[in-house]
């Protein structure tokens, strides 16, 4: 009979949410195991912008971040046929670097394991007959197996807040070093972006609500074609052979359910992207830390400390740019 590895907390997924949770547990000298089905460093589709709140949550000065970090003091907003300069303080990172850094920063070594079966005997969780834990934390992204087992009774009910996106990140001799965002154009129920990063890297992408596009018969690939042609005409990206990658994520619900007994979900597994900009990294890290505090204190996980919006002082932005309030 195979002997199982036992731990207090088993975390499935070593991205920003899982790394933040594990890092906080490690600080408090709590027992945990961090699993991931892939090794790091690895690429991850994501526009890659982060707010100062992310570095604050990590107790890290942005100046001490050892990899490429582009700082923006304004976004150029293209709203219908008008342009605006929005004053901000934001950063752009590359996920292949940032995710790996979070693990290094906390001194974490994920165990390579793909979760296939989860059992709950009422006292503990058993994963693939190999791991047993009192607490189980799902941090495996939009397709997290923990979320699938315990929180997705009706996946269709999330369709209205699911965003489908396409993006391409590539090397390019950057001439336009501002971050550009396009809203309410070409019938896209979301927005498009152009994010220059350090080292002559550019991230280009579009995202829109899947439910809205399904109702209107719109196709995200058609929107991608429109947007890349627009960038070509503007001279922002010329002669590039596009290799777009698709993905989905969910914007935060009004009343997110993050815990059932001793099982919790965090980050994209819980659908916590901000309601105004669809930012996922900040809520992932904040929810990871909050989940760790829940384990440490033995108290319920409360979502109040996890930001709902990227620009909390600009609530009108949500109404103006996304055309709807979730």
Tell me what the structure shows.
- With 326 residues, the protein is α/β, with parallel strands linked by helices.
- It has one domain (5-322): FAD/NAD(P)-binding domain (3-Layer(bba) Sandwich).
- The chain contains eight helices and 16 strands.
- It has helices spanning 16-27, 52-57, 95-106, 145-150, 210-216, 220-234, 281-297, 315-322, and strands at residues 5-12, 32-36, 49-50, 70-79, 82-92, 111-112, 118-120, 125-127, 131-138, 162-171, 179-183, 190-197, 201-209, 245-250, 259-260, 263-265.
- Strands 1, 2, 6, 7, 8, 9, 15 and 16 form an eight-stranded mixed beta sheet that branches.
- β11 and β12 (190-197) form a beta hairpin.
- The longest helix has 17 residues, at 281-297.
- The chain is globular.
At a glance:
The protein is of the alpha/beta class. It has eight helices and 16 strands.
Features:
single chain, 326 residues, alpha/beta, FAD/NAD(P)-binding domain, eight-stranded mixed sheet, 16 strands, 29% strand, disordered C terminus
Arithmetic mean pLDDT:
92
Poorly predicted ranges (pLDDT <50, ≥5 residues)? 322-326
Cα separation of the termini: 50 Å
CATH topology: FAD/NAD(P)-binding domain
By helix and strand content, what is the structural category? Answer: alpha/beta
Q: How many domains comprise the coordinates? A: 1
**How is the main sheet built?**
8 strands, mixed
The CATH homology group name: FAD/NAD(P)-binding domain
N to C succession of SSEs: EHEEHEEHEEEEHEEEEHHEEEHH
How much of the polypeptide forms β-strand, as a percent range? 25-35%
Rough outline: globular
Supply the CATH class: Alpha Beta
Number of β-strand runs: 16
Count of individual helical segments: 8
CATH architecture: 3-Layer(bba) Sandwich
Proportion of helical residues:
25-40%
Taking all Cα atoms into account, the compactness measure Rg is: 20 Å
């Amino acid at each position: 009979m195979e002997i199982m590895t036992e731990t207090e907390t088993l975390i499935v997924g070593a991205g920003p949410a899982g790394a933040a949770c594990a890092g906080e547990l490690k600080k408090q000298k709590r027992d945990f195991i961090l699993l991931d089905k892939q090794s790091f460093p690895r690429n991850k589709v994501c526009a890659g912008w982060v707010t100062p709140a992310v570095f604050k949550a990590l107790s890290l000065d942005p100046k001490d971040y050892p990899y490429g970090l582009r700082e923006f003091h304004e976004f150029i907003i293209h709203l219908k046929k008008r342009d605006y300069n929005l004053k901000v303080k934001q950063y752009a990172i590359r996920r292949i670097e940032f995710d790996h850094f979070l693990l290094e920063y906390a001194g974490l070594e994920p165990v390579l394991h793909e979760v296939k079966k989860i059992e709950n005997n009422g006292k503990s969780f058993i994963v693939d007959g190999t791991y047993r834990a009192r607490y189980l934390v799902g941090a495996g992204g939009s397709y997290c197996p923990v979320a699938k087992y315990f929180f997705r009774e009706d996946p269709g009910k999330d369709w209205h807040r699911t965003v489908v996106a396409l993006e391409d990140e590539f090397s390019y001799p950057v001439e336009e070093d501002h971050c550009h965002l396009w809203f309410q154009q070409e019938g896209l129920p979301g927005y498009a972006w152009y994010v220059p990063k350090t080292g002559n890297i550019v991230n280009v992408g579009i995202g829109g609500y899947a439910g809205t596009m399904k109702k209107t018969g719109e196709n995200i690939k058609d929107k991608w074609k429109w947007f890349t042609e627009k960038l070509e005409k503007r001279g922002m990206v010329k002669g590039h052979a596009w290799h777009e990658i698709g993905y989905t994520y969910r914007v935060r619900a009004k009343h997110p359910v993050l815990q059932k007994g001793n099982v919790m979900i965090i980050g994209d597994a819980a659908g916590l992207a901000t309601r105004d900009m669809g930012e996922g990294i900040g809520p992932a890290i904040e929810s990871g830390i909050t989940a760790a505090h829940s384990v440490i204190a033995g108290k319920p996980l409360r979502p109040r400390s996890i930001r709902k919006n990227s620009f909390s002082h600009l609530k009108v932005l949500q109404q103006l740019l996304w055309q709807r309030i979730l």
